[in-house]
Structures are given as C-alpha cells and as structure tokens.
Amino acid sequence: MAKRFSAPLERTARLLDLVPYINTHQGISIKELSGVFKVSSTQMVSDLTTLWMCGLPGYTPLELMDLDFESGFVTINNAPTLSKPRSISFDEGVALLLGLDLLRSSISSDRRDLIERIDSLSERLSTLIKLPSALSATAPVNEQISRAVLKSIKSQTGLQIVYHSLYRDEITTREIFPIEIIDNHSQQYLSAYCYTAQDFRQFKLDRVQSAQIINIEKTVPATSIDSKKIPFIVSVIKPTREIAERFNQPRLKPTTNFESASYSKQWIERSILASGSAVALQSPPEIRISVAEMAQSMLDRYKAG
Amino acid sequence: MSRKIERLINLTIALLATKRYLTKTEIFRSVEGYEGSAETKERMFERDKDDLRSLGIDIEVGSFDPLFHDEAGYRIKQEKYQLDLGEITPIEISLLSLAAEAWQGASLDEAAQRALVKLKSMGIPVDDLILPGAVHKLSDSGEDLALLTKAIAEHQRLSFTYVDAALKKQVRSIVPIGLSTRSGLWYITGVDQKIEEIRTFRIDRIDGEITTSKGPKDFETPAGFDPKRVFDSQGTNTFALVDVRKGKASALRALASTEHSLGEWDQLRIPILNVNSLASLVLWHGEDAFVQEPQDLRDLVIQHLEALVSNHG
C-alpha cells in the first residue's frame, strides 16, 4: 500500500504542490481547487492561509508569496522558487507505469501513434524513477467489447453478445440488458438481465467474444428468479493446490470430505473430471454415476486407439 | 502543527532559492520558525531534514570550500526538485490521465492522482482523447505493491512461503526483477536464489508475510529479461496433439498454436508448459477432447480416468 505520511507531512506536500497548480490555473475557484486536491473548502482556505505566510527569508511583503483568495478565486504571484511541479515519487511513477502498460494493451494496434507516445512516456518515467522495464499489465478484454459494454450501460440499451460458457463449453449468442460491471475476486463480470435465459446473469468479461449494441424494448423484471443450487460432497484423496483453488477450499486434508454447492450440474461434473485421481464425488449419486460413465467411455476410446 | 508546516515550506523555499550551500547558522538566522536553545534548533532542523527527504525532496550536503573543513552547508537543487519528463504534449497528458484512472478504487489510486495533479500543474492544455480503454481497471487485493516494486528497484532479496502444486509450503527466496498483472492476478518474477533460475510466482499463492533483506552484491538483471513475455510459451519445444470436437473446447483452442480440421473433429497443436495442468484441462472437456500425442500426456490422462472410474464405481 502506498506509504501514508503523517498529517503534517501530507499537508506540507499538498502546500508545495498547490503553488505550481495555482500558478498555471490562475483565478481557479476555491471550490474547484478543493476538488482537485480532494480536501474540503475549509481545509483549502486553511492551507492557503498557511501558504500566505511563507516565502523567502526576510519575510517582508516583498519576499512573501503574493497570494489572493479573498474573492473565492485564487491567484498567485511572486512564487518563482516553488512554481515548477515537484518531481514524482517512486510510488507515483509505479502507478503511472502500470496504468500506461494496461492502457497500451487495450489500444488497438492500428493506433501506432498512441502506442509510440505510451512507449516514449514509459521510457522517460522508468528512467526518472530508476526502474527500467520491470512492470507489465495486460487487459484481458478487447477494446471493441469494452466500448460496446460501457456504451450500453451508459445509454441503457440492449446488447447482443457472443459468450463462451466454460461449464457448458458452448458459444452462444444472447440478448442482454447490461446493468453494471462488478469486480469479484479480481475478475470483472458484467451483471445483466439475459433475455435468452430470462433471468439475471453474470458474464465474465474476458469470455465475451463480441458485443454489439441493439435496440430492445423489453422490460427487466425487478428481481431474479433464483434457480436452485445443487449441494455436493467431495472426498479428498490427494490434496493439491489445483483442487484447493477450484473448489475454493483453502484447508484441504487427505481422507476428509468437504461440502459445497453449485448452480450447474455440468460445472460439478467437469470439475470432478478435471481433478482426476485427487478427489471423488460422494453425492449427489446421479452425478457420481454420470462421472463414472463419462470416465469409462473416455477410457474405452483411449484403450481402443 | 501549522507552524511546523510553515517552517518546512520556508526551509524548502530558502534551500531552493540559494545559489550556494547555506550553513546551519545561516538557516537558523534567516529562515523563520527556528526558535529556542541551540540544541532545540539543532533537533528541529535534523527532524525537518528527515521529513523533507521522506517526501522525496533531495537535500544536498556540501561545503563552500572542499579544501577547508568548514561548516557543512545545505541546498536543494532546482533541477532535482522539479519534474522533468522532457517535453510533454497534450496527448501525452491525456494518456497519463487515463493511466491514472485505471487505479480507481485500487491501492495506488492516491499515488496516481497525486502524480496527475503534478503533471497538470505543468500548464499543458489537455486534449480530449476518447479511448474506449476506460473499462480496464487495475485491481489488487492486499499485495504490497510498494514493497515489491521497491525491492525490484533496489535488488533486495524477498523471502516468502509459497504454496506449491502439491499444496506443500515451501520457503522461497528470490531477487525480484519483474511485477506483472493479468486478469486481476499479480505475479512476481525473480531469480530464485537456490536454483539460480528465473521463476514466476502468483502473489495470492504466497502464504503470510513477504520479508525483505539485503540482496546479493553485484546482482544484475539477467540480460534479455522482458516482463511482457513472462507468460509467453516461447521457449517450449514440446507440443501436444489434441483432437477436439467441432465447435467445442474453446479453452483448449485458445492455447493452440495451430489448428486443422479432421471433419467432425479438429486437431490442435498445443505447446506444453505444464503437463499436469494440460491433462486437467483435457479432462475438463470430457468426451470432447482426446490426446493423440505425446505418450506421457496420454498415460497421465489414462491414469486419471482409471482412478475416476474406480473411485466412482
């Protein structure tokens, strides 16, 4: 986490940064200035009052900064020593570098002009904070999709998406009404009403293969018709990290059982198959049987060829 | 409290404005706010110096005449104090604003915003750049990015407990060289100090605290290291041939380097990075995926299937 300074130091930093900002934004209102520095107007007036007392040794009106804010609008003169913005800190540089790299990965490759600018900025920033080529961030979603999704949320229109469902292993075209983008366990999901499923659904953004704005005049029901979760019991044969992460069971012990639930029968079947010899499904019995049958039929094919 | 702040600002101004080193005596005499006994002033000044340095302000110590051991003096060089990124264009300011926006709601949000205010203080007009990239956000959950990046910059050694694929806890020690994020997960890459090879670790698989210590002397980042290629399959020369049913197994198709049609099925050529996770992904796809080659992957899949049959019989 970014290092937090003590209150007086944080305020000192803010005062130092206020001078160059006012210098290039002469006549800015106190209200707007407070917004830029994310403090209350009262705090801003107190900051400006403190700054007004500062200047070069001598501290006569000639040496003090000429700061005027009585009218509610701020101007500054006679502050040449502090008039240039301070250099950026290491953390600030890291934040910008990672942000730039993420941006770079989401810009379409025909914008060579922008990519060149980003590369040039990254080079200058990493030289400045002495951290050459060590950071990388990748956007998992392509730009046309994010553009369409954002636009449809903003303008409240429908969206037609081609979506890859991992559990069903199916690519389907769906008409949806997007509601919001949510972050869950660092993954981004699009929460939407799906006209195809006639229910609310969450779509993992990086599995949306294409998205197109459409006009639909259907209404969205207020609440979700909650489908039922299927409870299941798994016994652990060999604890592995893969199993712990797949079933979200951080504390796995051999020869123990854990219980969980899922909305999808297919998800349970596939998860058990993918776990191979490490686990065994205890219940529900019908899924246990279908897993055994699928495994047997796959095995037959390997033995045959 | 505000007297202390005034003093720090006045000290910064005085040290920036001076063309030569200012001695402590001169500072105490001319900069407002230094009061009390000689010892009190001395203590105040030492603390002020540390405070300004912690804000990233570089205070130089020197003397008027290096031939004589006279009193040390202090100053802040304007060129080190001020932001210098060369010529910045309106488009670049817009790009940096978008870069800062990516942190909204994540840990470096404040740092990114502070940097942006400084950049905007340069008085460069901003071009309205409409880029659809705004949906991409950097997200993190408790990774100490400041600690990790600092360790990279200073070639420190990082030690931590890592949960390996068998769920065993191993103590690893690396000199970090890269930090990457992909789909919301964070990865640290470094030179493992035991095996002396480059390894990448997923940070959420680190158990407990990461401790830093002094790194090895004369450490150098291995030549040719590129953080953007940490996840590339470059370098593998083993491939699997996997048949998948038409219209199915998109997750396997995404990994394939080539794909050709066999009628009802397609054959994929997939670089093998980790044979166990590939076997698991093939099994996930059930009867829609079938391994042709290599034999060891086939054997592994068969072993799992035999166990699945007997464990669910």
Give a brief rundown of this model:
Chain A contains nine helices and twelve strands.
Mind explaining what this structure looks like?
- The complex is a heterodimer of chains A (305) and B (313).
- Chain A has 305 residues and is an alpha+beta fold.
- Chain A folds into four domains: 7-82, Arc Repressor Mutant, subunit A; 90-128; 143-214, SH3 type barrels, CATH 2.30.30; 230-304, no CATH class.
- Chain A is built from nine helices and twelve strands.
- Chain A has helices at 7-24, 30-36, 41-52, 90-106, 112-128, 143-155, 241-246, 265-275, 285-304; strands at 28-29, 66-68, 73-77, 135-138, 158-165, 170-184, 187-194, 199-204, 208-214, 230-236, 257-262, 279-283.
- In chain A, a hairpin with a 4-residue loop joins strand 5 and strand 6.
- In chain A, helix 2 packs across helix 3.
- The longest helix of chain A has 20 residues, at 285-304.
- Chain A starts with 6 loop residues before the first helix and ends with a helix.
- Chain B is of the alpha+beta class and 313 residues long.
- Chain B has four domains: 2-81, Arc Repressor Mutant, subunit A; 90-135, no CATH class; 145-229, SH3 type barrels; 239-311, no CATH class.
- Helices cover 35% and strands 24% of the residues of chain B.
- The longest helix of chain B is centred in the first third of the chain and has 17 residues, at 38-54.
- Chain B is elongated.
- Chain B starts with a helix and ends with a helix.
- The mean pLDDT of chain B is 87.
- The chains are: A alpha+beta (305), B alpha+beta (313).
- The interface between A and B is large, with 122 and 126 residues.
